[in-house]
Amino acid sequence: MQQATSSLEANKDNDNQQDSTSPSSHQSFPLNSNNVSNRRTTITEELFNRGVLYGKEKEYEKAFQCFMKVAEECECADTQFKIAYYYHIGLGVEKDIRKAFEWYLKSAENGFAKAQCNVGLLYRFAEGVEQNLPKAFEFHLRAAKQGITTSMLAVACSYELGMGIMRDISKSFEWLLKAAENGDVGAQYYVGHAYEIGEGVEPDDTKSFEWYLKAAEQMDVRAQLAIGISFYCGRGVTENQRKSFEWFLKAAEQGDKSAQFYVGCAYDSGEGVEKNRYKAFEWYLKSAENGHKDAQFNVVYAYEKGDGVEECFSKTVFWLAKRLNGNFQFIENPEEQFGLKDFLSEDLAHFENITEPVIVRFEERDFTISYELLKHSKYFSTMLNLNWNRFNENENKHIVLDLRSIQSEIFQEQLDCSQIFENYINCLRGGLPTSCEMQLPVIYLARYLGDDSCILKIMKKSSLLMRYYFLFQLESHTKLHVALASCFSSKLAPTRDLSEGVLETLLVQSELSWPAKERIFGEYSQRFKTPISLTFSKSFIINNYDIKLNR
Questions:
Q1: Which residue segment(s) compose the domain that 443 sits in?
Q2: Residue 86 DSSP SS3
Q3: What pLDDT is attached to residue 381?
């Protein structure tokens, strides 16, 4: 299991669900598992039902007043929960998370399961109360034992990450399984995944398939893809190419790029469906447009050979450029912009001969650079290989790469673009930005330009932990990097290139083991005047345990 997502447990007045908190099911006694003796009288029961009716009619102020009057007369958990929820959302009363927590806590202590769940969420995210992970776990566990799926997922995640309780993958799986058996489609997918890889339970392909199927039948696209792969490989089920295709198609129609690629492959090879090169191309193209690299390669081949689509050299070059650089959006209309009709295939092989200076133009200034410095950039190589000097020249006949129209795409943040590009050029010439605050924007720029050599140059001159930081920021970490970072020893001397922001980024990575985080935190927590413990706790929870409070 990776992350669980759930919502604020709400006692809604405007739906038609019949549950223990719906208007039509209220009785003249408190509705909570402990059967608290403080019963509503006939008068307070009438007030409560009137409040429910006002809520359904969206007269929230009147509804809130009714619930408050009931609460003054008796300790009824469901009434306390409604008051908490109204404070939390700001229905009929000014929003006040602190008061919401107080009323949730009263309801929770009276045994109301949904209130226990919300108290757990508020403790976890420090909403209306100081953060307390052990208490968050305690209240989630209470609610989970009463059948609240949200809390089952919370308990599973807590055991998996060791948050508020000692880490225990087996117990994490047990609670994940309970949530799956309760019908949660995400939990069903993760149970299937756990059985597939043997996480917290013995690997079992048959059970993995069964749980994937439950989730797939509820339209979980990840599970549909997994079922397609299972039928294709005969993993946990008898191999069946036709059924494999059917499930790939279901996931593909929901927009999954891998499934779209597999559907294209099936039409291409005739596995599980009648061979059809035209339909194969259609699905390859959908997948390619979603960024699937192998699909982009097949689209390049199709346009080059006229396989399933009319041969088109300009589109061949376009998709080749897209495949080389996933962020490449500069030749959306290549035939008009670059006159590709006039180009021959052999033109693409001659751009290494370019020796004259290249001018890169931004709003702030021009940069004059030799091509030798740009040849490692897939972005600039694509531009130069398309013979830009035919269309963009200055008075000295130098190639001009005018990037002003896409400057905002290249530099995502409102930073000094000119300074970042200058730092990039200095890096190409052998220099290196001194701080991580200067290095990271250069790395982002190099990634956009497809210049891996520049990124590697910065990496090689960085400390061990700085490398991990860059890898996590670039989302390019592998299991090997994670293993190395998790083995980080407290004996490793601090290095000057580590800032507070770098440490915080490392500490919130869900892939790193908790002991590794403790060692990193303990080694560096004394280096900064402002303690990072609170920031670390908040960001760690948000990044590692994705339960959001919604209405």
A1: 347-460
A2: helix
A3: 73
